[in-house]
User: What shape does this take?
Amino acid sequence: MIALLLRDLRLSVRAGGGFGLGLAFFLIVSVLVPFGVGPEAEILARIAPGILWVGALLACLLSLDRIFQLDFEDGSLDLLATAPVPMEGAVVMKALAHWLVTGLPLTLAAPLFGGLMSMAAPGHWWMFVTLLLGTPALSMIGAFGAALTVGLKRGGLLLSLLVLPLYVPTLIFGAEAATRGMAGLDATTPLLMVAGITAGSVALLPFAAAAALRINLR
Amino acid sequence: MELVVRDLTVARGGVPVLAGLGFTLGAGEVVVLRGPNGSGKTTLLRTLAGLQPPLAGEVSLPPETIAYGAHADGLKAQLSVAENLAFWASVYGTGEIEAALGDMNLSGLRDRPAANLSAGQKRRLGLARLLVTGRPIWLLDEPTVSLDTASVALFAARVRAHVAGGGAALIATHIDLGLEARVLDVTPYKADPDAGANPGAFDEAFL
Assistant: This one.
């Protein structure tokens, strides 16, 4: 299973891999929003957590269909299914690789990009913490959606429609925790909700995704 | 170590293609599957590999013994020949690729990205994957597609060595590999498409 993780990471940094795609998209959003909203630092600082969270979520969505589709097309998913790797384990490794390539860089970059929106000092810390807690759920839910749509040609649209509603709770609680934290209020409850969503999806969705893959491979 | 198939019915897309199929594949044996296009050879191999459930009948085989070689080689274009093979070797926990590279005449290509291989070279790499699995029963679907005469002979020699070492192989192919093999023609087992037609077949995937 570690071999699968290392292979996916290696593929993502080689030519044509997904590394940097999400990050570039995230940077574009962070750069463009201040132009669109205007230069009032106060307004920007107030909407920054929400914008950063939406940007991170959409950047995550961008590379979801690659999780299983490429392996499905070149036949390696069939071969993986017959290999001595439990499908659930393969799903977890694929989601983890997606998170390391997309979610983690977004988490690390968000505090920096927050500066583009005049985010004040404790805000950087809160963006980092909430994204660190929330992005694993985005990758795991996305892997489930990708498993459901793996056999479909151009399944990206269906994938987005399936996954977006599932992303909403993570977004609401993640952005809420960051906003409350920045305002100096108690953010424990939304933080716990985000952590709970992540823990729940990591615990349950690998089984659902593996079942969906098995059906799609028939 | 024996693959036993009894009264097997396999379906593709909910329509039965082969019915009442039975055979055994013991250690040291090669069975060649024959039949016209669309007769269900691939479906049979996928069922035996565990990728889809049989409609009826049973397949008995010891666990963790199957290595499946599909139409597609499952290669990653951005990875080199050695990296592709090393991945499968570590998935199967064998870790050793040098012998397989040498056996399939790939040593000179080891650092070349799979994207730059010819179709025949890709196939050779796909077949080298079987050698690193360490599994005794090979299920091969048209393994010689796009191979030249010399590579077909090389592959036949590998199958012979595998079988001599106590392995077994079930090969769907249209050409003569020059192996001492039992031929299993699937044509007589053709299923009546309406016989098992099950209006609920679509639902079964979700149950």
Residues 85 and 114 of chain A are 41 Å apart (CA to CA). The mean pLDDT of chain A is 91. Residues 2-11+19-217 of chain A form one domain. Chain A is about 80% helix and 0% strand.
